[in-house]
Amino acid sequence: MSDSQWYVLKVISGQEKKVKAYIEAERTEQQLEDCIEQVLIPSERVYEMRAGKRQTKERQFFPGYVLICATLTDGRANHIIRSIPGALGFLSTRGWSLSKAPVPMRQAEINRILGKVDDAFTEGELVKVIDGPFSGFTGSIQEIFEERKKLNVTVKIFERNTPVELSYAQVEKLP
After folding, report:
1. Does domain 5-113 have CATH number 1.10.10.10?
2. Which of 8, 9, 114, 162 has its CA at 20 to 30 Å from residue 96's CA atom?
């Protein structure tokens, strides 16, 4: 979609997943796939040690906020999103409101949140895995899936090249 943009929706804190599920259900039910492209709750996996055991926990970057990639010009998606229980309003020029026109996020902001760096990844480039089961491994990029923000990286495990699919946020470029 060329005219879709990212918007910030303020929601009741603690109800981010409920609001996301509701938007996705309405998107399918009302056949708004052409208007609402993606709904995102920016989060990361955090590893904690509890009682001597490593536990994985999901931590949100922005509690109380949901990001929506949508086309809000025709009003259909805008109306559905504004009527969702738990939605407090879009970020607009005058703060948060359900009645004011929403302001889209700048591309640099959304790139940073999605884990995309300003200079794009290139095939054959060496990267270090910084998150997940292959953390600490280095590998080379074999394929880039720009639309999904994923990379196909070949890492060496037990002296064998193994392809793994990783998100942009799970790797960092090597100097």
Report:
1. no
2. 114
